Amino acid sequence: MKIAIIPTTGGEDPFRGMEIAVQLGVEGVHIPAYGGKLNLTERSREERLKIKERIKSYGLEVSALIAWGGDVDLGEEKNLRQNIEWGKKINETAVDMANGLWMAHVGIMPDDESHPKWARFVASLKELAQHGEEVGAILALETGPEPPVILRKMVETINSPAIRINFDPANLLLWPPTVYKRKGIPFNYDEAMENFDPVKGLKVLIPYVVHAHAKDSTLSPDGKAMEVPLGTGMTNWQALHQIFKENNYQGYYAIEREVGEKAMEDVKKAVEFLRKLE
What we know:
The protein is of the alpha/beta class. The protein has 11 helices and 10 strands.
């Protein structure tokens, strides 16, 4: 098992967060591709490599870069060319920092392949994939907004080693209320749990998963979804870990804690929780 933490969790300085990673004895850090103190995409390659050397001096490696958290939709025409070029820039940054790997939300894919957005997703991702293959980068699409069967269909449609999956089980329970609201239909708990169940979802997606977020959440029948500390929610990490092991998963479990007054304390407890799964 390889564990990474996000060193900026709870507003920590990234290098202070790396010191915490060392104290916790984890193997990696999961860092943002842009913004903040590191602001990697806006630096020269020489500057990026110096930062990478500093990370290595802690005995750490970068599990993957973090990008688009919902600010990009490759299925929409607006800003599409700009976003594709931005993605290529992140491809190159990931090659310098994270063995080419970065993860992102790329928008909400339609269930129907005949929908105009589907064709835009395919064209956009194929262009990013071609560039990724040329430079040695992999974009891992993050789970959440669409049922796992739809995400797998997209990955197999692109059919490139440069497009893979970042499995976030918590997102599969956090997103359904928003999906139903956007579709303008009442929330259906049983249907949501059937389509977005994290354990079933991992079984569908595991051939393409190269990175995972160790994260937890709950979803109630009234449509309330909430992120919770790892091991206290409904994602069933014991079952997920078993599936990862059975499929010889070699990637990272990157602990993500996006809420909470003591987020970094929750991260420390999450490291202990994961180690007990072994």
